[in-house]
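Homework help board

Subject: predicted structure for assignment chain

Our instructor gave us this sequence and asked us to write out the predicted structure in token form, then describe one feature. I got the tokens but I'm not sure how to describe them. Can anyone check?
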Amino acid sequence: MHQRICGVVFALLSLAIGPMQSPSAQDDQGVVFVGAGDIANCEMLGGARATAALLDTIEGTVFTTGDHAYQTGSAKEFQNCYEPTWGRHKKRTRPTIGNHDLVTDKGRPYFEYFGENAGPAGLGYYSYDLGAWHIISLNSAAPARKNTPQMKWLLADLSAHPADCVLAYWHIARFSSGGHGSDPLMADVWHVLYEAGADVVLSSHDHDYERFAPQDDKGKADPERGIREFVVGTGGGGVYEFKRVASNSEVRNNSTYGVLKLTLKPGHYDWEFVPMAGQKFRDAGSGSCSPAR
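My token output:
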């Protein structure tokens, strides 16, 4: 990330910044960031069990892109559905909140279950460093327009944490070919991230896998400065049909549960979609962080 926006209030950061991890000699080898969203449904736990088994074999930090425990994100559903599957990786998980997580008591069971790993209770947005990368978890159910608390926090966070490479993740996909389609809720956030030089966005909400070419804030292809989005709603909570293929969509699959494994390195990253046992679909490649403005 090369360009920063000045004149923000740094005090906004004090509550919403997670534990920092200092870069080390291992950074050149990369740090692993692996996960998915739309995960555990007690009516059909086979998918969540299968993707949790994948995590058993992959070291690194686990991300989630929301909707952990269907249908209402209740404490009972977290304990009976999520805990027996992805729950065994809770200590290394940095989640983001989804719309189903918010149904029960405005997300209280979600915040109580994940504790400090989910950032300040009730906010749903926070940041941390992972190797040479700055990572930002955002709340797509909270207002994120100009002058909202979340947007003010994001601007302050971007200014306070200069990094060559930045990844952001939230639940509701900005761009998607799935049933929900492209959603403008986070359009202003995408604009801010694009102007700041962010590199990767992860989301879900549509229960499928989709990879986009790097895009600008208008949804136009921008191979030099654009943000690459991955939709990873493949955690096990059912699958959706694709509707209209969105512009710049490069790869789509809605028949395979699995996790996205990112290896984050200084200046670049590798990705690999890892399918559940017995499935053959894969997607892999590499990308570079945005050049200087």
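Reply (TA_rk): Your tokens look well-formed. For the description, you could write something like this. The chain has one domain: 10-288. That's the kind of observation they're looking for.
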